[in-house]
Amino acid sequence: MIANTSHKSKYDMEALHHPYPYQEELPTQQTMDAMWRLFLAIGEFWEIDADIEAMSSNLVVFMSNRIQVNPTYVAEYANAEEVIDELISELGEAEAYKKLFTDPSANISPPTTKLARARQLVSNEFVALQLALGGFKTFGGAKNYLGYISGANIEGDTPYRTYTKEPK
Questions:
Q1: CA separation for the pair 18, 139 (Å, rounded)
Q2: Hey, where are the domains in the chain?
Q3: Cα 129 from Cα 59, distance rounded (Å)
Q4: Greatest extent of the chain over all pairs of C-alpha atoms, in Å
Q5: Which residues pair with 77 in a beta bridge?
Q6: Is 109 exposed, middle or buried (0-12, 13-18, 19+ CB in 10 A)?
Q7: pLDDT at residue 52 in the model
């Protein structure tokens, strides 16, 4: 008997984003508010000279996309909220964010602690988002800032940070 090859089994079908069906779940409003406070703290701590308030909808879309690609991000955002709350209760707000952003113990690979997961899977991604949305113009003093394209490379009027060789 010859098998019918026109029918494809479900287990052979390519998964679109995540291999298992799920209902899109967004973080609670409390978690979303905590992530927005984190996003604001990043801009303040790193002195990013951009209109961060205008980036709020971008943050929501970014988080939603992350969850769509990997539903475990709902738990990662909740973990980050919990870590930040605990750090704030122990250290106060300014020192809590400083520890989250700079503590070397949060750089372990793979990120196995709650602090490391909050830094690497949430905070660092929010930093990258801010930089991508225009915060990178803060660093290097780009003269002809046009987004990712720095403008014309005109001799004597370089639109981006130039390399300065250190004296030996």
A1: 36
A2: 24-138
A3: 8
A4: 80
A5: none
A6: exposed
A7: 85
